[in-house]
Amino acid sequence: MNSIALRPPQRFLMGPGPGPVAPSVLEAQAAPTIGHLDPEFIELMDTLQGQLRQVFRTENAFTMAFSSPATAAMEACIVNVLEPGDRALICINGVFGMRLAEMARRCGAEVDTLSFDWGRAVDPEQVARHLHDHAPYKLVAWVQAETSTGALSDSRRLAELTREAGALSLVDAVTAIAGVPLEVDAWGLDMVYAGSQKCLSAPPGLAPLTVSARALEACRNRKTPVQSWFMDFSLLGGYWGGEQRRAYHHTAPVNALYGLHEALRLVLDEGLEARWARHQRIAGLLADGLEAMDINIVPPVAERLPPLTTLSIPDGVDDAALRRWLLDTHSLEIGAGLGALAGKAWRIGLMGHGCTEAAVQRVLGALEEGLKKTVGAAA
Ligand SMILES: *Cc1c(COP(=O)(O)O)cnc(C)c1O
Q1: 86: number of CA atoms within 13 Å, CB side?
Q2: Which residue in 64, 81, 247, 344 could disulfide with 240, CB within 3.0 to 4.6 Å?
Q3: How many angstroms does the Cα of residue 175 sit away from the middle of ligand 1?
Q4: What is the distance between the alpha carbons of residues 203 and 236, in angstroms, rounded to a whole number?
Q5: 49 alpha carbon to ligand 1 midpoint, in Å?
Q6: Which is the closest atom of ligand 1 to the Cα of 197?
C-alpha cells in the first residue's frame, strides 16, 4: 500500500469551499522549497503583504497570511482582543456566527448574541436598537458572507454602528474576500480575517488577516497576557513585520505561500471591481436557471451572496442520494444544508476561478438530469 502514490480525482468543486484552484497556483506551489528566513522568502513575505493590503483595501501595517485555516484566524482575533469580563456582541445568522460566540465565551468574555433567521442577513436596524439599549461593548462581530446560509450582510453599515457605539469591529470575510465588495479602511473595519480556499482560489490552509492600529492598541492594553502563545499578535507581528522583523516565530508554510502569491496576482490582474462584478453576473445566471426549474432560492434577492447560492431542495428528493449521484456521475460537489437548513437546502458555490458560465451550465444540466431521473426520489 505504501508504494502507491496518491491520485486524487479531478472534481468540479461547486460547494461552500474549497473552490477550484487555478492550475498556475498549483504549479507555483510545486516550485522548490527555500528556507523561511532566506532573503528571497523575506522578499516574498513583503510582496504578499502588499498584495493582501490591496485585496483588503487597507493600509494596515498588521496585514499577513496567518499559517492556519480561517477558523484559527477567527480564534486569533477573539483571543487577542477579549479578556475575561470584556463585553462582546456577536451577530448570529448561521454556523460561523455561532462559532464566533462560542470562542468569545471561552475567553471568559460576557457575550451577548443577536440572532437572525438562517438565510437572512444581519439586520442593521436591530443591531442599532440593541447597541442603543445595551452598549458599551468592547467588540461587535459578524460574518459578512455567511457561507452556511448564502446571506450577505452590510459590513459598511454595521461598521458605522459599531464605531458610533465606541466598539471595535470583527468581520468574518472568509467568503467575502475577492468575491464581493470589501473595503477595510473605507468602512473602518478593525479586525478582518479571510481564507485562501474560497474566492481567492488557492488551496485551503492559509488565512489572510488584517488588524487596525486601533485594535492593536486595544490588544496591547490588555491586563492579562494572551492565553495562546502561537496566536499572540505581538509575537506574530514580529515575524511578519514591526521592529523585530522576521524574528523566528514558526516556520511559514513556504510552498503554500507561493500558491497564495500566484492566487493574489491573478485576483489583482483581473481587478477587484471586475471580479466582484463577475461573481454578481454569474450568480445571476445561476439564479435565473434555478428559477426556470421552479427551484426556490432561500435568501431574499437583496440579501443574496453571489459566491454561494442556497436553494430549497425540491419536495420528494433524497438529499444525500442526489448529492452522491452528482459526485459519482458528474464528479461534481455541491454542499448540504447546515443547521436550521440541514436536509432542506443545498449550497452551490461559484467562487473565484470556479465562477464561470460553464460552471453554471454544468451544475444546472446535472441537477436537471438528476431530478428528472428522480434519483433517490422518495416517490
Ligand atoms: C469556510 C469558512 C470559514 C472556515 O474556514 P476554515 O478554513 O474551514 O477554517 C469561516 N467562516 C466562513 C464564513 C467560511 O465560509
Answers
A1: 25
A2: 64
A3: 7
A4: 22
A5: 21
A6: 7
Q: Where are the domains of the chain?
A: 24-268, 272-378
Ligand 1 atom 2 nearest Cα: 174
pTM above 0.85, yes or no: yes
Q: Which helix (H) or strand (E) holds 287?
A: helix 272-292
List pLDDT tens digits, range 120-174: 999 999 999 999 999 999 999 999 999 999 999 999 999 999 999 999 999 999 9
Residues lining ligand 1, Cβ inside 6 A? 17, 69-71, 96, 143, 145, 147, 172, 174-175, 195, 198, 204
Give pLDDT tens digits for 176-203: 999 999 999 999 999 999 999 999 999 9
Whose CA is closest to atom 5 on ligand 1?
A: 70
Task: Please give the average per-residue pLDDT across 298-326, as a whole number.
Answer: 96
Distance from the Cα of residue 367 to its chain's centroid: 26
Among 75, 95, 96, 338, which residue has the most ligand 1 atoms within 8 Å of its CB, making it the best to mutate?
96
Nearest CA among 223, 238, 249 for reference residue 81:
223
Atom of ligand 1 nearest to the CA of 143: 13
Helix (H) or strand (E) holding 132: helix 124-134
Q: How far is the CA of 84 from the centre of ligand 1 (A)?
A: 26
272-378: CATH superfamily: Aspartate Aminotransferase, domain 1 (3.90.1150.10)
Quick one: the chain helix, strand, coil %, rounded to 5?
45, 15, 40
